[in-house]
Amino acid sequence: QEMSKTLEEELESELETQLRLNSDLQAENHSLKDQVEKINKDYYHKLIEMEKAAYKLQNELKETQNKLKTILKSNKELETELDIYKSKLREKEFEIEELTETYNQTLEELAITCSELDGLKDFNAESTHRLKEQLNELSQDLEIARDKTFNLQNHSSNFEKTEKPKLKDSMVG
Fold first, then answer.
1. CB-based contacts of 42: which residues, under 8 Å, 6+ apart?
2. Residue 42 and which of 25, 31, 87, 110 are 20 to 30 A apart at CA?
C-alpha cells in the first residue's frame, strides 16, 4: 500500500507536470498561431506595398528614360557650345598673357619710379633737416642781434639819463 501511495503520488506529480506542460504548450501553440496569422497579414500588406512600389518604379523608370533622352540631346548641344567657349577661352588667354606682360612691365617701371621717389624723399628730408637747422641758427643769431640792439638801446638810454643830469650839474656848478 505504501508503495502504491508513493507510486500514486509520483504519478499525480507526473500528471500535474504533464498538465502544466500541456497547458504551456497549448498557450505557446496559440501564441504561435497568432504570430503566423500576424505574419500572413504583414506578408499580404508587404506584398501589396511591393506591387505598388514596383508599379511606381516602372513609372519612374519610364520618366527617367525620357529625361535621359532629353539630357543626351542637351549634352550634344552643350558640347557644341563648349567647343565654341574653348575657342573663345584660348583667345582670352592669349589676351590675358599680353596684358600680363604689359602689367609686369608697368609694375617694373613703377617699382623703379617708387625707388627714385624714395631717393628724392630721403634727399628732401635731409634738405629740410638742413634748412631747419639753418633756420634755427639764423633765429638764434637774430635773437642775439635783437638782444644786443636792445642792450645797446637800454645802455644808451641809461647813459643819457645818468650822464645828462651830471653834465647839467657840472655846468651849473
1. none
2. 25
Mean pLDDT on 61-84:
96
pLDDT band of residue 149 (cuts 50, 70, 90) is confident
Q: 68 to each of 53, 92, 169, how far by Cα in Å?
A: 22, 34, 136
DSSP string, the chain: -HHHHHHHHHHHHHHHHHHHHHHHHHHHHHHHHHHHHHHHHHHHHHHHHHHHHHHHHHHHHHHHHHHHHHHHHHHHHHHHHHHHHHHHHHHHHHHHHHHHHHHHHHHHHHHHHHHHHHHHHHHHHHHHHHHHHHHHHHHHHHHHHHHHHHHHHHHHHHHHHHHHHHHHHHHH-
Q: Hey, what's the cell of 126?
A: 635731409
Residue 161, CB-side half-sphere exposure with 13 Å CA sphere = 6
- Supply the pLDDT for residue 11: 86
Question: Is the Cα torsion angle 140, 141, 146, 147 positive or negative in sign?
Answer: positive
What number of CA atoms fall less than 13 Å from residue 42's CA on the CB side? 6
